[in-house]
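Justification of computing resources. Each target in the renewal requires a structure prediction run like the one illustrated here; the chain below, 426 residues long, is used simply to show the kind of job we budget for.
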Amino acid sequence: MNSFPLNSKPELLSPAGNLEKLKYAFAYGADAVYVGAPKFSLRARGDELTYQDFAEGLSWAHERGKQVYLAANLLAHDEDLSPFQEFMAELAPLGFDGIIVADLGLLDWVRTNYPDLAVHVSTQANTTNSWTARFYERLGVKRLVLARELSLEAIRGLRDAVGLELEAFVHGAMCISYSGRCLLSNYFSTEHPKAEGVRDANRGDCSQVCRWEFALAEQSRPEVSLPIEEDAYGTAILSSRDLNMARHVQELLKAGVNSLKIEGRMKSAWYTASATRVYRHSLDRAMAAQAPDEAVLAELQLLSRREYTTGFYFQTDRKTDADGQLRGQPHRNSLQDRRLLGLVEQREANQAVCRALNTLRKGQRVVAMNPGRADQWLTADELWVDGEQRDMVRIGERFTLHRSGQAESVLDEFGILLAPSPKEIL
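Resulting structure tokens:
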């Protein structure tokens, strides 16, 4: 039996869609990040890292004892093979700690040509049984990124069957299709009158058709559309809730999971930092055999998200999930309470220079979020841009925020400035 020893140190794995997000993930508690190979991962439109970014990110991570995994998990076509070989020849020498693949051909080629590079099998490969897990183990794979359709009981079965590391998603968006193998994007991107070519979900270019709002049309009158009114917030009949297992980390560890993965390479640095901070807390508490603080878990309700679910991990009566959410209950397709105002780009003397990501006005109440300490509320007493005081800062401008009678900035390196939710102000 290969049970996971609860006193060993599991990994918290966060998304990093660019170099900035990579650094924020580590600042807020990640042990490792996964970055996308441009054109070869499943977020081809969201991966913004250049060769120089990869080199700097790896150096920055390794200096801090952290790890970086390269996602190259598309399902390849023949025209992808030569570019992939060239890509690997350029990037593999940088020293990634592992590569995430789904395609068996790419897996075989990587194992043959880069035998010292750890291979992680992507969730896109849809590993759901012990025979498949043993097959990958014989191929020399180091880690399985488990299919989201697995229950905790099924994961325990895999843990008993193989000595591979097991990685499981704990938070973020979920695909309505089986382990992400979806053709809706391919179909609608060619049928839509404004289509600019096929957007293949299995090659990193998903148009997220499942998040669209749909209407009914009668065959003989296609020009007449009838709205499908699911609830007051619209229609999301194909749109899955977001996964949230922050309250159940200890159960995941007991099932044999070695790495807890947060989804969201295309989301903001604030999302990366906040989700990482919460799961760092939950994981540390789980390792101490303690329940997480509900006040900390509540931070996940402030992020841009859909309503939450525990997915398929728990075998329940199928009417509710493990957190009591009704299965099949209508839900809003997108929710957000707090709003991202700016990120700290550098510290100058006692002040933090921020990049504005939303409009900020003098006198506005804001929340300062920093690594390693509690959020602080303050008023934007003075806003300075290029040595001039302003009443308002616009998106893209660099600014410093001063408080009356305070010389020291409330924002540290990797600080985040947020607009509180209306519920927090009341």
